[in-house]
Write a structure and sequence with these properties.
The complex is a heterodimer of chains A (488) and B (429). Chain A contains 21 helices and 15 strands. Chain A is α/β, with parallel strands linked by helices. Chain A folds into three domains: 127 residues, 3-Layer(aba) Sandwich (Rossmann fold); 96 residues, Rossmann fold; 169 residues, Nitrogenase molybdenum iron protein domain (Rossmann fold, 3-Layer(aba) Sandwich). The mean pLDDT of chain A is 93. Chain B has three domains: 140 residues, 3-Layer(aba) Sandwich (Rossmann fold), CATH 3.40.50; 123 residues, Nitrogenase molybdenum iron protein domain (Rossmann fold), CATH 3.40.50.1980; 139 residues, 3-Layer(aba) Sandwich (Rossmann fold), CATH 3.40.50.1980. Helix content of chain B is 44%, strand content 14%. Chain B contains 17 helices and 13 strands. The longest helix of chain B has 19 residues. The mean pLDDT of chain B is 95. The chains are: A alpha/beta (488), B alpha/beta (429). Strand 4 of chain A pairs antiparallel with strand 1 of chain B.
């Protein structure tokens, strides 16, 4: 990958790394085809809601403390961001820090779509700067501003000197990509372009960049890394602009989710030589150990890490083995982003649960460095196979699968998706917290959560008996790929 | 545009349209829009409305053409056609409505040509050609009713002099909508009326088709629904009365009952007996808890409907002192603002509060922060909690957006709702 930080536009995941959103088959076929380069994604002639990449991009950016986000578009586009902003406030409160980050919309109306509104945008930027004195300003576009061709870049360039803080255009036209995770790349690009500076000379550090969503396991991870003399810098939730400016000085970059972290990790490696930890992620036993060992290798701390692994195994492995007895033979369907789906599949396999179908909301054939995603490679190497599909959270496909397979559980990282499974009578586990399966301790807790969820199915069964789903009987009899078609 | 909007309260037109359609049983919205619009609009209204979302289809289950660059450049009608066909095949709905996103609106896709093809085959698919940027959630409510009046509601339905239609309470955009409609339904049913709330009791598209048979349209809102009500009367001959604010408590609810009774010339004996028993019900409870709530000087930040209701109840029925009322939804017509101000200022008992119209959170916070008179109670949305904490005043989460409460059928409206409201003021102490 060659990153161009002089241009505010980021190529979409489709164009950059061949990501797809339409596929039905098996895991092995998906992986083999992506390895030999023959995989071609399908599109759908019928689809349900996808998600806007702006939610991912701006949701990430508004976690940064004391910055301003200006969403140049109709008021409706700014609302989901406002929710993310609210979340960020809660998160700063939880950690006991303050954030004066502000999220404003420009309330674009019909006139603006005809006559344009770049002049007013300039005034809004200056007024926001005066009102809130932010430490950085992100100016985002939307579908509407994108189509009428508002030149946000020029406005940003014009006011740069006057505002006197880092300011950057963030290109968030929702129609740009069917993969909302492109939004994560957009936010990384904006941070890299406007805030991250080259390493200062002579600065020595034991910091490791840790890209995550909400730093919910912050104290625990800080404690763990102390064993290895490493100091994690959590991104971007509660980050300061000052912290971000020094990301290039860290010993390495790692992330909780490959989809979330790969653009930042790869770019820091490519531009500044900060090694990016590429391994399966921290979910489950095998994942946790592999990840730790990789960090040990990259930062020269293997000995300390082996010692830690040995201590922790002694505490947790017997307990996990005990819970596994209750899980043996259960079946699961899961639907998550690709940064989790193939990782969680591995964990379920470790716990003795049979994955009957795994849906990934999109699939990256290659990562930025050209390799097949590590989680896929692991499953292939270990001869684990199951039916798999790629669908941008297409609910009708999920319901068709759940209806046919009647699994013991459905796991998803998206609450809207679990709702429909529960209405179907399927116990659903909302893997909401990114650290829910992190390491030995949380793998044990996760296993116990599954036991709880499947043992008492009163709500699911009673609800399903009394509520009717919107889907026709016809649809349940069709194949999952009925509406897929070759991309033209 | 022209303005800075910190934390807009609600979404675009599509959010409003989606909220209204989502509250009607077995009606399926189909988005002709970018891939993010379903989630954004669901998040905007349903997602901030006390954690309740549409039962039939919502967020991830909404059909959407997910327009991408290809459709922006070449037009999206083919994608729309297959999306509608798919929706008809897999979603077992009684009616389908095609919504227009900003993208489809700007590139000028002729959605009517496609919906007509389906209508000719007898499929109930209706176009709504109002793109997202045309306005806010409230406009979405009016847009849906204009669509119903133009395309769905039947003419020459036999008149029923006991049937009334309720308008003005926007599903999800008012988190208490279903409870409020249920209370209104309960009261009017006691008067021997049949009530179309449209969004409760499993009412569906058939109720809407036949609602022109009503004897009266009752608009419960100080400003919304002006255009549609005029069009409704013109096309179907159903007159309207406007109740200029949601009624909370015995005084205003009784006034509402009398207005309806007068418009429909209901039997005065029945009406008075209902009023008497309802008022007795409320005051019997209030009388059992005298002195439990301490006296307050209050401020309200809410949509016009609820701002009127909360202020008038607390000032007129419960002896609290109103200090500041901020109407936090965009209102454009001066006549509407005047009507709202009149409702808030025209208090029998208390001195009128200061009334402001502000939509930008920065301005709202500033007004509360800089208010010189003491405030000891603030009723507002989740967005106002922060300023309440800052000023250390008691806070009641009673308005949209509402992120930290679970609301099923709770309401502050009507006779019984006022008791719930009073309970909540105590519980939050």
């Amino acid at each position: 990958m060659a990153v161009n930080l002089n241009n505010s536009n980021v190529a979409t995941r489709e164009n950059r790394i061949g990501s797809i959103t339409g596929y039905v088959g098996t895991l092995k076929d998906l992986a083999t085809q992506s390895e030999c380069g023959t995989l071609k994604g399908c599109s759908r002639c019928f689809s349900q809601s996808s998600t806007c990449l702006s939610s991912c991009a701006l949701g990430q950016l508004c976690g940064i403390r004391d910055v301003a986000l200006i969403h140049h578009g109709p008021a409706g586009c700014s609302v989901a961001g406002a929710g993310a902003y609210y979340m960020a406030k809660v998160m700063s409160k939880k950690r006991g820090v303050t954030s004066d980050t502000i999220y404003v919309g420009t309330d674009m109306n019909e006139n603006d779509t005809i006559f344009g509104s770049t002049n007013t945008l300039r005034n809004v930027i200056l007024e926001v700067n005066k009102r809130y004195s932010p430490k950085a300003i992100f100016v985002s576009s939307s579908c509407a501003t994108g189509i009428i061709g508002e030149d946000i870049d020029s406005i940003v360039d014009e006011v740069r000197d006057e505002v006197g803080v880092p300011i950057v255009a963030v290109h968030c036209e929702g129609f740009k990509s069917r993969i909302w995770a492109t939004g994560f790349d957009i936010s990384d690009h904006a941070v890299l372009q406007s805030i991250v500076k080259p390493p200062r000379e002579g600065v020595k550090t034991n910091k490791i960049n840790f890209k995550n969503f909400f730093e919910s396991a912050r104290p625990e991870i800080i404690e763990m890394f102390k064993n290895f003399d490493l100091d994690p810098v959590f991104l971007y939730c509660n980050s300061t602009v000052e912290e971000l400016s020094h990301l290039s000085e860290s010993l390495a970059t790692t992330c909780i989710c490959g989809t979330l972290g790969n653009y930042l990790g790869n770019t820091l490696e490519e531009k500044y030589g900060v090694p990016y930890v590429r391994s399966i992620n921290q979910c489950g036993i095998e994942g946790f150990e592999t990840w730790l060992r990789e960090i040990g290798k990259v930062t020269g701390r293997s000995e300390k890490i082996e010692k830690y692994i040995e201590e922790q195994r002694a505490i947790y492995i017997p307990q996990i083995e005990e819970v596994k007895k209750e899980l043996k033979g259960l079946t699961a369907v899961l639907g998550m982003g690709p940064g989790y789906t193939f990782e969680v599949s591995r964990v379920l396999n470790e716990l003795g649960i049979k994955v009957v179908w795994a849906l990934a909301w999109h699939y990256d054939k290659k990562y930025e460095n050209g390799d097949v995603p590590p989680s896929m490679k692991y499953l292939l190497d270990n001869d684990i196979d199951f039916e798999a599909s790629v669908a941008d959270q297409q609910n009708y496909e999920v319901m068709n699968i759940l209806h046919k397979y009647q699994p013991d559980m459905y796991l998803s990282r998206h609450p809207g998706s679990t709702v429909w499974a529960i209405k179907n009578g399927t116990p659903a586990i909302y893997v909401a917290d990114e650290y829910m399966i992190f390491g030995y301790k949380h793998t044990l807790e996760f296993a116990k959560t599954i036991v709880d969820a499947i043992k008492n199915r009163s709500f699911e069964e009673n609800l399903a008996k009394r509520s009717k789903l919107p889907y026709t009987d016809w649809w349940y009899k069709q194949d999952v790929d009925t509406f897929l078609e070759e991309t033209k | 545009m022209s303005q800075i909007m910190e934390n807009p309260k609600g979404g675009c037109v599509l959010a409003g349209i989606n909220s209204v359609l989502g509250a009607i049983d077995k009606v399926c919205p189909i988005y002709h829009s970018g891939p993010g619009c379903c989630m954004q609009t669901t998040a905007a209204d349903q997602g901030q409305s006390g954690h309740k979302s549409s039962c039939f289809v919502s967020s991830v289950s909404l059909p959407s053409s997910n327009m991408l660059e290809k459709e922006v450049v070449f037009g999206g009608l083919n994608k729309l056609r297959t999306t509608i066909q798919g929706a008809v095949d897999i979603i077992d709905a009684d009616a389908y409505f095609v919504l227009t996103g900003c993208t489809a609106g700007i590139i000028g896709d002729d959605i009517v040509s496609v919906t007509t093809e389906f209508q000719e085959k007898g499929v109930p698919v209706y176009p709504i050609e109002t793109p997202g940027f045309a306005g806010d959630s409230n406009l979405g409510y009016e847009t849906v009713w204009n669509t119903f009046i133009d395309q769905v509601i039947e003419k020459d339905v036999p008149k029923d002099d006991k049937l009334v239609n309720i308008f003005g309470i926007v599903p999800y955009h008012d988190p208490f909508w279903s409870g409020a409609l249920e209370e209104i339904d309960r009261i009017l049913s006691r008067l021997g009326l049949k009530v179309n709330t449209f969004f409760t009791k499993g009412q569906g598209i058939e109720t809407i088709r036949k609602c022109s048979g009503a004897a009266l349209n009752i608009i419960i809102n100080p400003w919304l629904f002006k255009g549609p009500s005029e069009k409704f009367e013109e096309k179907f001959g159903v007159p309207s009365i406007r109740i200029p604010g949601l009624f909370v408590g015995a005084t205003d609810t009784t006034k509402f009952v009398r207005s309806v009774a007068e418009a429909l010339k209901l039997d005065p004996k029945l009406v008075e007996s209902v009023i008497e028993s309802e008022e007795h019900y409320v005051y019997n409870y209030l009388a059992q808890s005298i002195g439990v709530l301490s006296w307050k000087r209050f401020a309200v930040v809410a949509d016009a409907n609820n701002a009127v209701g909360f202020t008038r109840y607390l000032a007129n029925d419960y002896s609290f002192t109103p200090v500041l009322v901020i109407v936090s939804e965009p209102i454009f017509r001066p006549e509407d603002k005047e009507r709202i101000i009149k409702q808030i200022e025209d208090l029998e008992y208390a001195r009128p509060p200061k009334v402001l119209f502000l939509t930008d959170q920065f301005e709202i916070n500033k007004a509360i922060r800089e208010e010189e008179e003491e405030i000891t109670l603030l009723i507002g949305s989740s967005n106002e909690r922060e300023i309440a904490i800052e000023k250390d005043i008691q806070f009641i989460l009673g308005a949209f957006p509402m992120s930290e409460r679970l609301i099923f059928n709770r309401t502050y409206a009507g006779y019984r709702g006022s008791l719930t409201f009073t309970e909540d003021i105590y519980d939050n102490n």
